[in-house]
Write a structure and sequence with these properties.
Elements: H1 2-27, H2 29-32, H3 37-52, H4 56-77, H5 84-103, H6 108-130
Helix pairs in contact: 3-4, 4-5
């Protein structure tokens, strides 16, 4: 009986640990991109707010911009008339077209940090595109704390 109780305790502990890990993974920027639509924009906005120390006014100004950008990107990805390369190109154009609207809301210090975050995201994206799924990278890479934007 005592052994059975110990087994159940261990099982419940493992379930709780896995659940908290899942919740933690969902809470960051990358977690936001596991959501859809406005939830995705809201998760990204929460991440940006943490990274850039956004004011409530900045968050309110950025929210509709990020939702609109997300809607356009989602529509592009769902457009079956476009090839994968065309979709990728159009998504990049959409993202670049929203950058001026986003940066005008930020302070000069926040703009610098935002540029750095974007550059890091591009580098992670480049690394994942050039590394085969089962290949080992040629040089060690630091662990990513965020998913691509």
């Amino acid at each position: 009986m005592n052994n059975r109780l110990g087994s159940w305790t261990l099982a419940l502990t493992l379930v709780a640990a896995c659940s908290s890990t899942f919740v933690a993974a969902q809470s960051g920027r990358g977690g936001g991109y596991r959501h859809q639509g406005a939830n995705r924009a809201a998760a990204y906005l929460r991440w940006l707010a943490e990274q850039l120390n956004l004011t409530d006014s900045q968050k309110a100004s950025l929210q509709p911009i990020l939702v609109q950008e997300g809607q356009q990107i989602r529509a592009t990805r769902q457009d079956s008339s476009l090839s994968s390369d065309q979709k990728m190109s159009k998504v990049k154009e959409i993202h670049e077209s929203f950058q001026p609207r986003i940066t005008t809301i930020l302070t000069p210090e926040q703009q610098e940090k935002y540029k750095q975050l974007e550059a890091e995201a591009r580098e992670r994206h480049r690394r994942t595109k050039t590394t085969a799924p089962n290949a080992t990278p040629k040089e060690p890479t630091p662990p990513d704390n965020q998913a691509d934007h």
